[in-house]
Amino acid sequence: MYRLGDALGTTAAHPVVNLELHKYAAKYLWGIDFEARAAKTSRALMLIAGDGHTNIFGPDVSSLDPRTWYENSSGQALMHGLRQAKLTAAKIPEQETLKDDDRAWEYFDELKFDVVLANPPFAGEMKDRKMLARYELAKPALKRAGSDKAAKEERDVLFIERILKMLRPGGRAAIVLPQGKFNNSSLAFIREWILKKARLLAVVGLHPNTFKPHTGTKTSVLFIQKYTDEQLADIARVHDDVAKDCPAYETEIQALLDAHEGDVPEDAIPDAVADLISETFSEPELDEPAAEDGEGEDGEETPEPPSEEDRIAAAEDKVDALKSELVGVKQKLIDLDSDVEALEWQQKNEIEAIGDTFAGTARELSAHLKPIKAEHKEAVKALKAKQKETAKRLKAEIKRLEKAIPEAERDLKLLTSRGKLELVLGDDDLIGTLKERWIAAEVAKRLDYPIFMAVSERGGKNNSGD
């Protein structure tokens, strides 16, 4: 990087250096952008500054999802370029045609760039479950959504993980991020994940006017260096050394529940557990009022939102109603079998009554009963056929209710601190997260490396962006 900067300052006097600069830019500088204007502008600027336009890819090439690279010529050029430059961590077979996007993550998940500079978009969320499943940082969002709600995660969060995966071990990155990613307590899991994967080199706070007039969002630049395998092995040894002293969070939470008959006061919950609850659980959403001025469509005042006690009572009623409905539906399914048994019992009694009163021989009785038994058999068959569709519908309803009841019980627990603690206690992943956070904090104390921190007090622009 130093040679590149020095050469840029002396190209007019040293044409040989200028040629070297062009070769360097053409081979080593790469760029990806989804937006057509950004990609086009980058090519033009690189052509003017150093002939590095060759490896600028876009538009419609998403850095977040390599499956999109298969959809257009620019994405295809990116894939072939990465393979030719040997910048993929996974070896791509020579006979691979790069036409099957099912192999996208296998080939292009991990790359081997030395340096990544990025200013990812702050706004917008990604909602593709198949893509989100590829990201460790999207796991909390997927967990919150469950199986019945739409999962979503902010794009800049996913970019953090994607950028680290684009780096070779020891590679460095500088990423512009909203300030909230650095100090928001509910986003602690992002910072924890970063510190597991990379060394924090520096954080530089930018002036609020830096990106005006486009946005006034307070931002900082994160400088990180991806750990090498050797460094990760050293950290793992420290991790194992401190893990034996980790608190038994299951015992602590159970003791907390046992110590309180009703709800658990928030101030009694340890900070580590409270932080995890805050970022993991969201309460069931309430319907928004129809108008913002406190009045409904007919000019009437909008009713006050229900109190906490009313919400808990409503949630309890919902659970009870679902359980009662399940019992009723199961009874209807049992009754179907009872109806068949009742018909068969009635038919049996009819046959016995005929036998008791029949005056002829046994052979004559058998001949007399034959069409009656055939008729009975058809009646049972017809009843079972009729019940088949009813049974199918009832079983589907039972399945729906058996799924809805745990969800309703979870929603009820989300309304109280006791309920949230019970959810944490019953989730091995969350208990594991508590333990890993404690261990990570202890590991950080032992590593204790210096971090450069700075704040820019001059934005270079006024409040209007000029």
Automatic annotation (TrEMBL):
DNA methylase adenine-specific domain: residues covered: 82-234
UniProt protein name: Type I restriction-modification system, M subunit
Protein's organism: Jannaschia seosinensis
One record GO biological process: DNA restriction-modification system
Entry GO MF terms: DNA binding; N-methyltransferase activity
Residue stretches in coiled coil: 373-418
Residues covered by region (Disordered): 282-310
This protein's UniProt keywords: Coiled coil, Restriction system
Record flagged with keyword Coiled coil: yes
